């Protein structure tokens, strides 16, 4: 059995950021991931300058595709306007592989099935043992499932479902477009150009609300496909190759650490409350968990941004129109259910 100071389950940006900081401090670290990198990762793939700064990446020195937008093209109820904000688009296929390969940890292609706590150690599938354990495996993280699901049940009303496709395409419109609340979608759809002939298009929204509307995310995807084709923004593509996934917006998270086990990123459900952006909070949580392991601080979410770095008025509108509206509806349903019983 291989023993490590720290075992990290999940090799995405959160896991690799943790690993890089831990190995730099001299801790023997292993990263376990069920996928062999580079791998497909469903994600719109935009990151903020703050994310790159936290990862010590200079945009001009990043060796793969990186496209920079100085504004977003926002569409709301037939109105279209520009919002100034610096954002970057990357391909997660390249970005995650780059981060993992430079982290300095031992990397294993391993599907974690069983985790036990014995004699102060964490035993993973009788192959690995560690003094500390970090769950960075996303929404279905086995560390969350084993040690945190009972402590932090998922807030169903915060679940986001998305459907997207990233594909080679010589786009003509270089702008990043976001369409909010079209066709009664409780969320938004996007068009994100990537550098050197790639494009990501997708839709995402609150799963509970979509279901209660009698809709499904594939229907909204088909409506986006029709829009993009009718506007000649995308033509001749295999839109049927799109795939779906889900994750959770930030809610009241009670426990992020149990003994020497931690959860970070999407395993903790930290996506922002406006745009549902997950990479920024994931990287921030990784750094905080690492600091806690090294005994420098307690692991707390107090300094992790709950919102994306966009204009305050747009943030307030999105929160009021989407997040708060959903929670008000959920509270009414809970009250009605309690009265009925």
UniProtKB/TrEMBL annotation:
One of its GO terms (molecular function) is oxidoreductase activity. Residues 5-36 form the FAD-dependent oxidoreductase 2 FAD-binding domain. This is FAD-dependent oxidoreductase 2 FAD-binding domain-containing protein. It comes from marine metagenome. Keywords: Flavoprotein, Oxidoreductase. It holds the Pfam family FAD_binding_2.
């Amino acid at each position: 059995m291989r023993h490590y100071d720290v075992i990290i389950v999940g090799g995405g940006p959160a896991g690799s950021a943790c690993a890089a900081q831990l190995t730099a401090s001299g801790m023997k670290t292993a990263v376990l991931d069920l996928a062999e990198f580079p791998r497909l990762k469903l994600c719109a793939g935009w990151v903020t300058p703050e994310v790159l700064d936290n990862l010590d990446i200079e945009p001009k020195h990043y060796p793969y595709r990186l496209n920079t937008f100085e504004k977003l093209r926002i569409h709301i109820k037939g109105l279209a306007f520009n919002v100034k904000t610096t954002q970057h688009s990357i391909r997660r296929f390249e970005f995650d592989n780059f981060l993992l390969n430079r982290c300095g940890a031992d990397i294993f292609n391993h599907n974690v099935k069983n985790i036990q706590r014995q004699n102060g150690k964490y035993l993973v599938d009788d192959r690995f043992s560690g003094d500390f354990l970090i769950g960075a495996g996303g929404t279905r993280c086995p560390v969350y499932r084993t040690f945190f699901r009972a402590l932090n049940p998922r807030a169903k009303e915060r679940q986001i479902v998305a459907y997207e496709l990233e594909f080679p395409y010589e786009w003509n419109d270089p702008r990043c477009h976001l369409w909010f609340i079209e066709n009664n979608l409780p969320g938004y759809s996007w068009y994100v150009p990537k550098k050197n002939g790639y494009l990501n298009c997708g839709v995402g929204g609150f799963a509970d609300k979509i279901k209660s509307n009698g809709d499904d995310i594939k229907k909204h995807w088909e409506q986006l496909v029709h829009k993009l084709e009718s506007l000649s923004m995308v033509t001749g593509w295999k839109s049927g190759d799109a795939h779906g996934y889900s994750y959770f917006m930030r809610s009241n998270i009670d426990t992020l650490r149990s003994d020497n086990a931690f959860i970070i990123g999407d395993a903790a459900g930290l996506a922002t409350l406006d745009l549902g952006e997950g990479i920024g909070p994931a990287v921030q949580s990784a750094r905080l968990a690492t600091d806690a392991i090294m005994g420098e601080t307690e692991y707390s979410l107090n300094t992790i941004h709950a919102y994306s770095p966009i204009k305050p008025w747009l943030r307030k509108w999105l929160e009021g129109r989407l997040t708060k509206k959903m929670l008000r509806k959920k509270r009414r349903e809970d009250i009605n259910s309690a009265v009925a019983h």
